[in-house]
Each structure stands twice: as C-alpha cells, then as structure tokens.
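Hey, sorry to bother you again with one of my protein questions. A protein chain has come my way and I'm curious about its shape. I'm sending you its amino acid sequence along with the backbone structure tokens. I owe you a coffee for this, so here goes:
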Amino acid sequence: MKPIVLVATTSRWFPTARFAMALNRAGFTVDAVCPPHHPLSKISAVRRTYAYSGLFPLSSLASAVRNTTPSLIIPGDDLTTRHMHLLHEKEQNRGSEGKKTCSLIEASLGSAESFSLILERASFMRVAQEVGVRVPTTGVVRDSEDLQLWIARNGFPMVLKADGTSGGSGVRTVATQEESDAAYRELKAPPSLARAAKRALMDRDQTLIWPSLLRRPRSVSAQTMIVGHEATSTVACWKGTVLAGLHFEVVNKKYAAGPATVMRLIENIEMTSAVEKMARRLKLSGVHGFDFMLESHTGNAYLIEVNPRTTQVGHLTLGPGRDLPAALAAAVTGMEIQQAPKVTEKNMVALFPQEWMRDPASPFIQSGYHDVPWEEPRLVEACMRHALKQGDARSMQGKQPTVYQRTANLPLIKAELNESRHE
C-alpha cells in the first residue's frame, strides 16, 4: 500500500503543485489541503483536495489530517509551517489524545524543540553561528533606538527582514538613515485592514485577515549585507540527517528581492556542510530550503536564512543524492531509494512560468533546461493564464507592456511555447 502524503499550503504558488507531482512519481498517494482554485486542483497527481480556510486555518488543517491519515505533511509555504507548529501546540495540550497528530507533525518537520528557532530569523542565525556555520552579523531590532544602535555598530548597507514573511515580501536592503527608518516602520507594522480586505476580495486570499485584525507588530531583524551572488540549497531530511540535496546558484530573478527565475546547479562543499550541521543541530525532517550569499571576493558561503518548506526546485530529479521525493519515500517506507530518471543533463534551469513571465525571449529558455510540466496540460495553461493576469497588472501600473498584453491570445501563446519545446 502506498504511503499517503498531505501537501498543505495557504498560498497559490505553482511550485507546490510541481512538488506534489514529484511525490506522486516517487510512490506517494498525494492529498492536499489548499485554498480554492489552487494549481494543485489542476493536476492528476493529487487524489483529493480539502479546503484550507484563512479564517479557521488550524481547524481546516486538522480536518484534512483526520480525513487523510497521512504518513507525512509537506508544507508549501512558511505560514503553513507556522500553522503546523500551532496545531502541534494545541494537540500537545490534549495529552494522549493529541499524541498521534504531534508525532505526525514532528515526523514532517523535525524536533518540536526547534520550532521557534526555525521561524525566528535572529535565533536561527545565532544557532548557525554556534555550530560553526558562516553567517552575517544578525540581531533583533525591537524599536527605533535599537535600529540606531545597530547602524552605529555595523553601518550601511544593511538588510532588514520581518519574521513571518516569505518570497522577498518582508526583506528590504537599505543604504541610508532615511531608507532604514522608512523600511523599519513598514516591516514592523501589521498589514492594514484595507490591504487584507483587498487580498480577500480580489485574490480570495484570507491569510491577512487575522494579522490585520489582531494588530500585532512583526518582529524585525537586521543583517549586515554580504556582497556577492545568491545561492540556495533544498534538502530532504530525516531525524537530523540530510538524505538528498540540490544546490543552485541564482542566475536571474524576477526582481531584486523576489524569487529566482533561472538557476545553475552547483556543488559547494561549504554549503553542503552548513546544511548538514543545521539539520543535525535542529533535528530536521521533511523538506527545507537554505539561502546563502557567495561572497564576491572570497567565494565564502554565508547562510542568510532558512525556508521551512518546499521550494521552487525541490521537484527536480537530478540523479543519485539529488532526488528529494524519492529520498522521503524511502525514509517513510523503510525501503531502498528508487531513483527517478534525471530530467536533464544541463546545469542551467529556467523555471516555468517564472522565467517565461520575466522574458519570453530569454536565451536561458533555449540554452538551458526549460522546466515546463508538459505532462500536466491543465497546469501549463493555468500558469499561462496567471502570466497573462500578471502582465495586465504590470501594464495597468504604467510599465512597459510585455508579450502577454500585446498578444492577449492564450492559444497562440500556447502554440509558441510548444514550438519552443521542440527547437
């Protein structure tokens, strides 16, 4: 009998669907709990979906767990991980009745002792330094006075980061006093009621409603800026041991603080060592991403943060030791790893639809591996519709029109994309 995995997410990110597909190929039966109209509902790899509620997140997550009885929960975003932590705390208070759910969450994420360290950026960096991992100077900035002290000690440029954010939305790089003051106020403040209402009405995303109503300020940390190239590691772990990993250098991004669109597969001993040390110290299980900066003049790898969830590249199967879903399946079943065939021999990966949205004429689409899920045509079409919608939004903001606004013809775009597949 196949093990069941529950893919849980609060956001409509396409990479979550890609990882679900890879889990299914690795031998899992995949169920999902997600918002309505999620890309997960477009793929044949998911057996059934359950509704995630932004107003009652713990109840919807707990209900999906009861209905699926999974061997593993895979979070698709940071907020889901936070909800899993809260559900663990709630079930732990129930004593023996909640023990099964607590064990499931720990099998999926790792030791409960590490939960607070994972989501608090400054605490995570402190632990990394304790185990000998190279990190930039990092500290919590509690108020404007703390900010001034930090600047006096460390100077500019600096990076301010808000806990509980992801995808670059809570990161600001600042180089002046004026920029730092404005960025700190923005990151510290909870989302406005107007923003939460707009997100709920326009995007059908209710995740900002509770933070906006409760008006709790966010924790902000400051970090010295490392000049260099961004890199990232995504790993599958089991009880503190790294089972498989992918290490990439970021080649292209949609925007400065946003997600990567083109990545180059690399081997980096320092990154590998850092990830293994952190997994062992925090007793991690499941899938985790680690972000690094490779310093320009030394090549030193600085760990800058952790993403306790799936990432954009976790679904890629690139050979022995580089197949995360297969490693997880082996850990859950106790059987030997059944490696999937490598999806490409190329080191350069153009992510879809990310790079296609950034530049339809990108040379990386032709020269690298363009990661289009051709086996799931409904997902491909949903990606393209999303690209059209994003293009329209950019056009309305007065920016240069892209191919999406100029064409506005989905069948034609689909034909052009399919043609590029065969070139």
Q: What stands out?
A: The chain has 17 helices and 15 strands. The longest strand covers residues 241-253.
